[in-house]
Amino acid sequence: MSLLSALLAVTTQVATPHLTATRVSTPPVLDGRLDELTWKRAKGSDAFTQKLPTPGEKPRYRTLVRVVYDDEAVYVGIDCEQTDDEIIARLTRRDRQVEADAVTVTLDTRGDGRSALEFEVNAAGVLSDALRFNDTEISREWDEIWDARTTRTTHGWSAEFKIPLRILRFRDLPTQSFGLQVRRRVSMLQEVDEWTFIPRDAGGEVSRYGKLDGLSGLRPKAALELRPFLVGALRYSESEAESRGAGVFPTGSAGLDLKWHPSQSLTLDATIFPDFGQVEADQVILNLSNFERFFPERRPFFLEGADNLATPFKLVYTRRIGRAPGTPAVRDDEETVGSSTPATVYAAAKLSGELAEGVSAFELLGVTAPVLVDVKRGDGSFVSRVAEPLAAFKVLRLRKDFGPRASLGFMATAKSRFETPSVYPTVETASGNGRTRVLCPKEQLVAHGARCFHDAYVAGIDGRWRSPGGDYVISGQVVASLVHDGPPRTLPDGTVISSGDIGPAVQARVAKEGGKHWTFNAEYAGHGRKVDYNDVGYMQRQNLHAFTASVRYRRLDPWWVTLETETFVDAVERDTLDWLTQERMLVLGNYTRWANFWESFVAIHAKPSRFDDREVGDGTALERAPLFGGELWVATDGRRLVNGEAWVMVQGIETGLNVEADGRLSVRILPQLDLDLIPTFLYTRGEPRYVTTIGAGHVFGRLRAQSLGLTMRATYTFTPRLSLQAYAQAFLEAQSFDGFTFSKARGPGKVARLAELLPFGLPLDDDPDWEGGSINANIVLRWEYRLGSTLFLVCTHAQGDGRAPLGRRATGFDFGWLGPRASEETLLAKLSYWWG
């Protein structure tokens, strides 16, 4: 068979199931019971097929689904027989995935075969929702206001959904059909049953759904939703109390969230003076790479709609909106008091929906306040300095769908900064002639009246095609960035970006995602020397050719003592545009899900010598020694009251050793109480790393670094709408150097080879050895006292996150960092009320 015919081949199709919805004049009472006359008169379907653990087989228990609707909502009733196995009904907070019996209803209301809304309730009545997009992708960050109830029956349990029409985007037609999928999970059997059976070796998800027919006269409800909120907080800072004599800071604010539907196909979400005090703190790690660490988004407003921004390159990283900038540079006779805080988001808005049939749009706007940091002058007085000016973020996304399997998209982003140059301090020039220059927050010296920050613009197009059978995918993206204004910036690889510079990036991918056994993936991503979309997006580096290829063989049916297995070979090649090798890696691995419902992953990998042109920061490329490593991950049966997982990676380097490990121990003390303990460990020694620059060359040293962390998460759920959650992380870290060497290689294009490093024995001006530790904790009480209206009570504790010279003490863990130290405590209350 030719390649073209293979790509166009249509896999064996399962007959599309249909279910007719029944219009009712009197809606059912939402209590989980399905014994009303409304439900008995509705047509039902019990044509479910087992997907896991034995695909295609008849389910162990019968499941019956019915759908009725009126002018306000779509109601789904699901009757779940279960007589011989225990029903696992676990309480937890909303949107938290736990091991439990559950049913899921997914609706493709636009009928495009690409996107769908997913609603789930477990046997304890805990709700969660998600958004499916691009046919096979899913975002669990989507959050809407809907309801469901469950109850026990004589033969099992039942669930009743109420999905308001106001949250559904559907076409204005007299009669229409929605795409429909219903799934049931039986926890004790680890069984998943589907109403629309989708073979596991088939590509596609939403495009394969069945049909919910008979929907007539649908009209949207409630064009406007409002959610005003009040916030009160009391913050105490020991460090500020010691430096300024006052450490207690009461604050209060008010804001508004709104949702408006200017038309049936468009939705405007906006927030004014939003507050995210209930959001969990980021986990602390020891980052030994020279790349910025990626943090997941946790703020609800920015989580919703993330599916619109999914492109091969991450052009939008919403954590940029409201981020905490670095500490600004100060004069020699000044010192900063404390550190910069996240920028206040004045307002943000999102417009999303369809402009025409097959044409979707998404627009995001955000405005953040200037970030000020207190500075103590040499005379003892205090002044506030700008760390980041007022900024506006703009994102535009357009996409044209060509049926359910092909699309072409456009995206543009911009970040504009609004500066007042006169607020920056001035310093005398090195010439000592009395002339002064402006000291920018990022240490550059510029002329009076010049800007310290740049504006950034990015635009790109992307496309995606999936074969008729759903197995094959081709995608790609082309991007260009423009920097305007601001002083020149030197990137870690030595590249200088100045105002007016334009940089390109391109990506292409071909993959086989479906099929019984064999799948593959091949991808290329290239970044120009001066491309930079980090102002709004996330990019680890520019000046790069990146090639990745993967071949996988899988068995998705039970075999021997396994439920499924996948064995793979991955190859990675990363080079600069001058073909200086950044990374070459070959990986051989296997994932297995065992018949006892344990899981394992094992892999070995090898990297030959390579060069890191970001290590020093001026473009000098340091040779990195070859390494060979392996990793192992094991997870136990998630149904058990005590379960967990553990991961360890060991790498042998020509000059040393790397060890990383983490794990999770979960204990279900009560059905409504979960406790997770998550330890982390890192140890590395022997690899030469950059220390400092002296004269005409660079000093390197053999690094010894280690970190130890323990995170605790506990959730006590009183009811599906009232929960108490606690989070705490203790973290220790330390690093030191020995075996110092010197290289005269310096600057872009220069290479510091390990064999050419010279011994170095002179004393260093600054001690590179340090240690540190921190404790972060919060407790959050969440009460949804009425549908869509919430009360949050939050208590947070932040301690440490600082470092101190190690001195002559050997590198180790100093648990004194976890004792009483300067800390910051916050008490916060947030009350919201939903109207719609």
Automatic annotation (TrEMBL):
Pfam families linked: DUF5916
Domain DUF5916: 224-417, 453-794
InterPro entries found in the cross-reference section: DUF5916 (IPR045670)
The protein's name in its UniProt record: Carbohydrate binding family 9 domain-containing protein
